């Protein structure tokens, strides 16, 4: 099977945070059945996104009055993690969707927030994003009551499976970045079929061409009379998405350890030449030592990721006017610590599991390489060394990170 199918009855929606996390576990179980086949086929994940829609996970953060679950970010992070245990690519897509669904709250006006949240929640719409501020390759021109986007973005996660796309570009003649939410299916947006990386293969993160996409100034996020009104809260977009990264890294690492322990219990043969021979590989000292080390490190990383989630939730759900630069900075440091710890731990797990599953576990049909490929691909998003340096400056000098597009 190379596409995801399900027969679950999801007509009744959960009413608690744990209920939604359990629902995400059900989705992950469906995805895990054919995750390797779908990864290799590298087909656009229409069925997988429909699975997210059918399960109700897409509107997890949406307002209750519009049919959403009205849940908080701590639940959204846990849900992202659970889905990633079954399929890292789909976990990434869902986590990015949550960020873009919240993007209006981060930067938009009250009126824009209300309109966007009603639109995506009532229609069960899925978000993608053509946002890569490192490359100023999408130019915006001011044409009176409208702004017009033209150019190209090298990455557009969610592209073909999205209903709405968040565009980001630079207003011509200025350094002003403007975000706008537009329909994904229109003549002016052409998604290219050029995402063929070794991991996270079903995230549809290829390039996109933007030609004469017109947006009313009234829909330019956070702009009033063509001027942006900045708040410390606006700069929470980077810590929020970086913790999305950490959570789907954690989910992938959990999935890797679960797959490996299952293989070792059921299929790994004991080594007959060690001098203290066992009847089962699961009883060998070096196997127990390795799994104990990896599990302990994973639990430690999970605790730090959860601690960061608790901290960021407090500011994400606070009054936007009340968030201070100091609050934002302390949260950013904690997120940086969580991200670099799970990145390192996840890659270690995805590498060392082969030492305790055996040579036969390296067969393509087993698929244990999927976890390393997924983690290795996305942990290159921005250098982890800079996250360690942010934490180091805080620990040594008491400095909090200055907001940039990556801190």
Structural features, described:
InterPro entries: Acyl-CoA_DH_C, Acyl-CoA_Oxase/DH_mid-dom_sf, AcylCo_DH-like_C, AcylCoA_DH/ox_N, AcylCoA_DH/ox_N_sf, AcylCoA_DH/oxidase_NM_dom_sf. GO terms for molecular function: monooxygenase activity. It comes from Saccharopolyspora taberi. This is Monooxygenase. The chain is an alpha+beta fold and 407 residues long. Helix 9 (325-352) crosses helix 11 (384-397). 48% of the residues lie in helices and 12% in strands. Strand 4 and strand 5 (177-183) form a beta hairpin. The protein has three domains: 17-126, Acyl-CoA dehydrogenase/oxidase, N-terminal domain (Butyryl-Coa Dehydrogenase, subunit A, domain 1, Orthogonal Bundle); 129-228, Butyryl-CoA Dehydrogenase, subunit A, domain 2 (Beta Barrel), CATH 2.40.110.10; 232-397, Butyryl-CoA Dehydrogenase, subunit A, domain 3, CATH 1.20.140.10.
Shape: globular
CATH H-level superfamily of the largest domain: Butyryl-CoA Dehydrogenase, subunit A, domain 3
- Tell me the number of helical segments per DSSP (H or I, 4 or more residues long): 11
Query: Regions with pLDDT < 50 over 5+ consecutive residues?
Result: none
Share in β-strands: 5-15%
What number is the mean pLDDT?
96
The CA-CA distance between the termini, in Å, is 41 Å
Query: Helix and strand string, N-terminal first?
Result: HHHHHHEEEEEEEEEHHHHH
**How many discrete structural domains?**
3
Structural class, judged by helices and strands? Answer: alpha+beta
CATH architecture identity of the largest domain:
Up-down Bundle
Give the helix level as a range of percent.
Answer: 40-55%
CATH class of the largest domain: Mainly Alpha
Count of DSSP strands: 9
Radius of gyration: 22 Å
CATH fold name of the largest domain, please?
Butyryl-CoA Dehydrogenase, subunit A, domain 3
The largest sheet, given as strand count, sense and whether it forms a barrel, is: 7 strands, mixed
Domain Acyl-CoA dehydrogenase/oxidase N-terminal: 30-113
Protein name: Monooxygenase
Keywords: Monooxygenase, Oxidoreductase
Domain Acyl-CoA dehydrogenase C-terminal: 243-381
């Amino acid at each position: 099977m190379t596409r995801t199918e399900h027969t679950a009855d999801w007509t009744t929606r959960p009413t608690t945070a744990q209920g939604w996390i359990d629902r995400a576990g059900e989705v992950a179980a469906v995805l895990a059945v054919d995750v390797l086949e779908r990864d290799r086929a590298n087909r656009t994940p229409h069925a997988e996104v429909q699975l997210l829609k059918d399960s109700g996970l897409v509107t997890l953060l949406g307002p209750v009055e519009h049919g959403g679950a009205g849940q908080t970010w701590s639940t959204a992070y846990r849900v992202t993690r659970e889905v990633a245990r079954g399929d890292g690519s789909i976990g990434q897509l869902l986590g990015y969707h949550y960020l873009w669904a919240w993007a209006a709250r981060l930067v938009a006006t009250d009126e824009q927030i209300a309109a966007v949240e009603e639109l995506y929640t009532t229609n069960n719409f899925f978000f993608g994003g053509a946002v890569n501020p490192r490359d100023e390759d999408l130019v915006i021109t001011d044409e009176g009551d409208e702004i017009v986007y033209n150019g190209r973005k090298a990455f557009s996660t969610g592209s073909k499976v999205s209903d709405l796309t968040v565009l980001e570009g630079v207003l011509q003649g200025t350094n002003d970045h403007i975000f706008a939410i537009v329909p994904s299916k229109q003549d002016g947006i052409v998604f290219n079929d050029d995402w063929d990386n070794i991991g996270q293969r079903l995230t549809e993160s290829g390039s996109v061409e933007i030609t004469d996409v017109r947006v009313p100034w009234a829909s330019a996020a956070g702009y009033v009379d063509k001027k942006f009104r900045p708040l410390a809260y606006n700069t929470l977009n980077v810590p929020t998405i970086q913790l999305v990264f950490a959570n789907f890294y954690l989910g992938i690492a959990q999935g890797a350890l679960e797959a490996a322990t299952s293989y070792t219990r059921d299929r790994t043969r004991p080594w007959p030449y060690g001098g203290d021979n066992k009847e089962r590989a699961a009883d060998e000292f070096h196997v127990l030592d390795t799994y104990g080390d990896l599990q302990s490190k994973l639990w430690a990383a999970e605790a730090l990721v959860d601690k960061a989630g608790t901290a960021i939730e407090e500011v994400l759900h606070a009054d936007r006017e009340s968030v201070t630069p100091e609050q934002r900075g302390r949260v950013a440091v904690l997120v940086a610590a969580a991200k670099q710890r799970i990145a390192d731990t996840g890659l270690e797990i995805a590498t060392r599991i082969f030492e305790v599953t055996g040579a036969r576990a390296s067969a393509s049909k087993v698929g244990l390489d999927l976890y390393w490929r997924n983690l290795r691909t996305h942990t290159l998003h921005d250098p982890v060394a800079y996250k360690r340096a942010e934490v180091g400056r805080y620990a040594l000098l008491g400095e909090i990170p200055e907001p940039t597009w990556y801190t």
